[in-house]
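lol ok so funny story. i was supposed to be doing the assay writeup but got distracted and ended up predicting the structure for this chain instead. priorities right. anyway since i did it might as well share w the group, maybe its usefull for someone
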Amino acid sequence: MSKQRNVAILIFNDVEVLDFCGPFEVFAVTGRKSTPVPFNVYTVAENPGPVLTWNQMSVNPKYSLRDCPPPDVLVVPGGRGTRSEMTRPALTDWIRDASANAEVVLSVCTGALLLAKAGLLDGLLATTHHAAMDELRSVIAPSTTLCPDKRFVDNGRFVLSGGISAGIDAAFYVVARLLGNDTALETAEHMEYDIKPESLLAGGTGKGAFKYVGVGSALHDQLKGTGSA
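and the output, tada:
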């Protein structure tokens, strides 16, 4: 049996709601029939107390930076708040330290700005929301390659996605990478989510048809040869 992995979802004032809630849902419902479930998912903020998201939703983080369990997977979302948060050494230092021991670090949207400010993107591929490419370009190291045409990029430990819904696709990709395509597809079916081919690994799946893979879609054609669609 695979170990249960801690998934820390960073939140902060003016975070984009879907940037963190989308991946939260993907990881939280994955393997929901397993005992134990494969992911222990929780939110973390710099300090205790409510966080006010962009568009004014109030969220109570489960942990602060001081008492957060070490994450195996760290999700760094974006939103307007990243512009102020990237100037806070307490946060960027924590991201750097937590990333050092994490199996996967997933940034969504302008969460890439926080990774760049923490000095974590040197020599890597990077992407972000299409409207924030110039901002990211201004803070990345010369050795970082910006990929504006990619929905998400995988550098091994660091996976970076474009904006908002792209973070959900990247979260499915991380699930497929850690637990396999079958698990990612089962999660997508539970969520009634139209999973994209790039969210799966090469090699297909060994299980039966999944009703949320549309007939005639690229993913349907990809799975056809495996007997799964």
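Confidence is low (pLDDT under 50) at residues 207-217. DSSP finds eight helices and eleven strands in the chain.
back to the writeup now i swear
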